[in-house]
Task: inverse folding
């Protein structure tokens, strides 16, 4: 039974590839000649074991094709190219022969986390997996060398790997990798080989073209939403719009006899309509009369929440960090400056609405989904199906954006539950409205700062009280969620007296990581208030920051580059201004200067200059695009981002009420990299999303004299200064 | 029944006339390069050409495009060699890529009306959403495509 099903699935993949038609076949033609290739469906059936699998990361086929397993998600950040690039550096293979594919979540479960974590958050694809795949590549290379040396009966040291061949240096004899792979797989090394030193890199650091781009300019790349499996039906879903509510009753009479509608599935907290077509399922769902049990949460609203978070600033809270003695220092201060900031809830709104295909069978569950966290998808599918985790197969696909939303795979649990109910493979597709209204949102947050200065203007104490929610209450320790506090407790600024108080406060609104969680709101807070402190001390905002970072020479080169490229200090027209922000996160130091023009109360962000030191640069263009893109993502939050609650439910539903940055709002952007080579592999997917928010509001202050202490900017009065 | 012509091929389809063109393309014809993003003509991920003009197919009933020439990303070229696709490749525009079929289709149609646009023209006329924030490279790619098409 198992074999038959495996076979049929493999046949499906094989036939589906050609069924894709000309566009699938065209890929090889359009890819640059030196490039590796990526399938439009870069996964295997999870059960085939290749004899040429040298280790879990590297398979070499008899024809020399190098399958490199990729243990993270590809949601746009580009590491489907970057991580294989790192592995290929050590393997010494021909890049043109490389064919990356997703690592199997099933194997990661059954083989004791052989791929580490498949979760793709915290800017850690390269940061955490980089060294793992370096070692995998080096190990595979040494095994290939050992296999060749054994055949020739020569010492390993006389053999060398290059361009997918092992050569015996004294004689020039050589073997292709593909001739050695099966023997190499059987070889056990005495010890793992040493990795190259950074100065030996010849492939890491190259501006390689992304492998997925050729598939993304002709419509051939397959996202979860694009897949079909035999016998599949389609479902639309509506979850109780008041978070935590349940289904009370469903009146199906309005959709009786509708064409294509197969079944209404009632889950505890959601109703799904299953049909033969998505549009029929969505239309029927809209016509259903559903009553919900919403409880007390159904009377809440954003006005109450905002007040509650601000009021919470007076509560006792927990000390998240204290240096020196803030209270004593504050009593000696010649001048004290205070300010309160807050931000609303925001949603992720990735371009591809959440979706998943689930097929619950008697002995296994298959799920096809673009997910940021295939490990969690496996766990969610096991829970929703009641099946053992070892019988769950997650087939990860390209994701149309993630930004944190695809870390909590709610859509997988739902699709599995609906497939179980109908006994067929089900493709579940959320509407945009469902995506906006059933988020795992960035928390609402408020903060009150207090800074004390000596008579000469030197800052001597910084005190802050923060109220915000925890996206992971299980991780709270002594009243502090470290993620909620990111960007505050680990700021690079050094003051002799420094204190962070955390007041955790959750509502019924579900929270989750939003690109650069914690940092995202806290860097807005911190970098805005540091700016306020600079003005209070009558110092240039850049110079003031330099003084607070004097103990960190590594910041100096980033700030120097930023000041030079960003024209800091140069005159600007009336009504225009520059704002700066710098921050270290995910092992990367990033600075931004934003130029804004404020005319008739309207803000236009005209230019953004970004400088960065992320340590080792694997692919410079990857760094540039992530900083550019992260900046735009954060700019949407700064200019427009606001989810409001009324009667316990989200009021916004689509891009008309939840606007995001479009071309007309997108500034000219320049990225400059000032790398420090060495052991540090700084993450770069998230930092850009944080600094743009204060850089813009600081620039608005420079332009107008008006200090914005809340976001979003849209709707705030910018006429005249304060 | 609906009779539509997509990428030069005629299809007779047994669908309700109010079905959005997007879902007909994706689920009846199997052309999944055209994406569902919002369903209300806000984001442009579903942009295709009808008689050469860019439209947002999520909000166009299939009955309204009968007898017209529909072009999707798959029909733009057989080898990804359209100048706009080539410009996108050179500038390495896509990140997640989900919006890019729509971005490319919108650009192809726009460049027909304005073969030599300024940045301001581009900003005012290309209104599709990209959440990855590829706008800087996208703008450069539009200029590159325009230059390629003029030569």
Result:
């Amino acid at each position: 039974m198992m074999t038959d099903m495996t076979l049929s699935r493999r046949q499906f993949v094989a036939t589906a590839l050609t069924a894709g038609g000309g566009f699938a076949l065209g890929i090889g033609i359009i890819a640059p000649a030196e490039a590796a290739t990526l399938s439009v469906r870069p996964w295997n059936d999870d059960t085939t074991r290749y004899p040429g699998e040298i280790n879990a990361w590297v398979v070499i086929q008899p024809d020399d094709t190098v399958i490199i397993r990729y243990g993270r998600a590809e949601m746009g950040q580009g590491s489907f190219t970057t991580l294989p690039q790192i592995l290929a550096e050590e393997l010494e293979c021909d890049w043109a022969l490389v064919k990356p594919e997703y690592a199997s979540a099933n194997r990661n479960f059954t083989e004791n986390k052989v791929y580490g974590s498949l979760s793709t958050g915290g800017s850690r694809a390269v940061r955490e997996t980089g060294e793992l795949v370096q070692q995998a590549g080096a190990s595979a290379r040494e095994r290939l060398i050992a296999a060749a040396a054994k055949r020739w009966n020569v010492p390993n040291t006389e053999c060398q790997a290059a361009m997918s061949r092992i050569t015996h240096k004294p004689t020039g004899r050589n073997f292709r990798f593909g001739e050695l792979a099966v023997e190499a797989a059987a070889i056990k090394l005495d010890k793992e080989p040493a990795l190259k030193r950074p100065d030996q890199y010849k492939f890491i650091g190259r501006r390689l073209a992304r492998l997925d781009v050729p598939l993304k300019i002709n419509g051939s790349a397959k996202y979860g939403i694009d897949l079909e499996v035999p016998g599949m039906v389609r479902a639309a879903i509506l979850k109780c719009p008041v978070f935590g509510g349940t289904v009370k009753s469903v009146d199906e009479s309005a959709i009786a006899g509708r064409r294509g509608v197969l079944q209404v599935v009632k889950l505890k907290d959601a109703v799904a309509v299953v049909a033969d077509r998505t549009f029929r399922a969505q239309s029927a769902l809209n016509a259903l009369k559903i009553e919900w049990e919403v409880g007390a949460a159904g009377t809440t609203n954003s006005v109450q929440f905002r007040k509650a978070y601000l009021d919470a600033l007076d509560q006792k809270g927990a000390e998240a960090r204290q240096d020196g003695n803030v209270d004593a220092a504050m009593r000696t201060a010649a001048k004290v400056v205070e300010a309160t900031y807050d931000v609303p809830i925001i949603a992720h709104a990735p371009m591809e609405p959440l979706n998943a295909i689930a097929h619950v069978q008697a002995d296994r569950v298959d799920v096809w989904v673009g997910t940021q966290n295939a490990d969690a998808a496996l766990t969610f599918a096991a829970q929703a199906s009641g099946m053992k985790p070892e019988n769950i197969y997650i087939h990860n696909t390209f994701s149309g954006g993630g930004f944190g939303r695809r870390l909590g795979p709610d859509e997988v649990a739902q699709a599995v539950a609906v497939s179980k109910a109908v006994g067929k493979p089900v493709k579940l597709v959320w509407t945009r409205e469902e995506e906006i209204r059933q988020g795992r949102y960035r928390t609402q947050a408020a903060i009150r700062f207090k800074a004390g200065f000596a008579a000469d203007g030197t800052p001597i104490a910084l005190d802050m009280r923060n109220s915000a929610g925890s996206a992971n209450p299980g991780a709270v320790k002594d009243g502090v969620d470290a993620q909620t506090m990111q960007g505050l407790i680990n700021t690079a600024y050094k003051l002799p007296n420094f204190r962070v108080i955390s007041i955790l406060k959750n509502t019924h609104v579900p929270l989750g990581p939003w690109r650069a969680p914690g940092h995202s709101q806290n860097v807005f807070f911190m970098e805005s208030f540091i700016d306020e402190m600079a003005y209070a001390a009558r110092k240039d905002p850049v110079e003031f920051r330099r003084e607070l970072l004097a103990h960190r020479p590594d910041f100096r080169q980033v700030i120097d580059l930023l000041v030079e490229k960003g024209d800091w200090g140069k005159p600007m027209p009336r009504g225009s201004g520059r704002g700066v922000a710098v921050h270290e996160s995910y092992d990367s130091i990033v600075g931004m200067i934003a130029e804004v023009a404020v005319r008739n109360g309207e803000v236009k962000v005209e230019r953004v200059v970004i400088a960065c030191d992320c340590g080792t640069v694997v692919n410079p263009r990857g760094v540039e695009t992530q900083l550019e893109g992260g900046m735009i993502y954060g700019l949407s939050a700064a200019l427009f981002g606001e989810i409001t609650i009324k009667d316990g439910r989200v009021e916004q539903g689509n891009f008309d009420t939840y606007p995001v940055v479009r071309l007309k709002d997108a500034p000219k952007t320049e990225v400059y990299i000032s790398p420090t080579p060495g052991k540090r592999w700084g993450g770069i997917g998230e930092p850009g999303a944080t600094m743009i928010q204060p850089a813009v509001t600081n620039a608005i202050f420079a332009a107008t004299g008006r200090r914005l202490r809340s976001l979003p900017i849209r709707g705030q009065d910018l006429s005249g200064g304060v | 029944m609906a009779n539509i012509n997509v990428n030069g091929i005629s299809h007779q389809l047994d669908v309700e006339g109010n079905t959005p063109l997007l879902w007909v393309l994706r689920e009846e014809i199997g052309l999944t390069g055209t994406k569902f993003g919002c369903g209300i003509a806000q984001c442009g991920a579903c942009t295709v050409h009808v008689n050469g003009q860019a439209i947002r197919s999520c909000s166009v009933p299939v009955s309204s495009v009968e007898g017209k020439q529909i072009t999707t990303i798959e029909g733009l070229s057989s080898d990804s060699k359209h100048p706009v696709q080539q410009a996108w490749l050179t500038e390495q525009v896509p990140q997640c890529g989900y919006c890019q079929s729509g971005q490319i289709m919108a650009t192809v149609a726009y460049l027909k009306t304005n073969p030599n646009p300024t940045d301001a023209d581009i900003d005012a006329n290309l209104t599709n959403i990209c959440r990855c924030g590829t706008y800087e490279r996208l703008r450069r790619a539009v200029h590159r495509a325009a230059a390629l098409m003029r030569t």
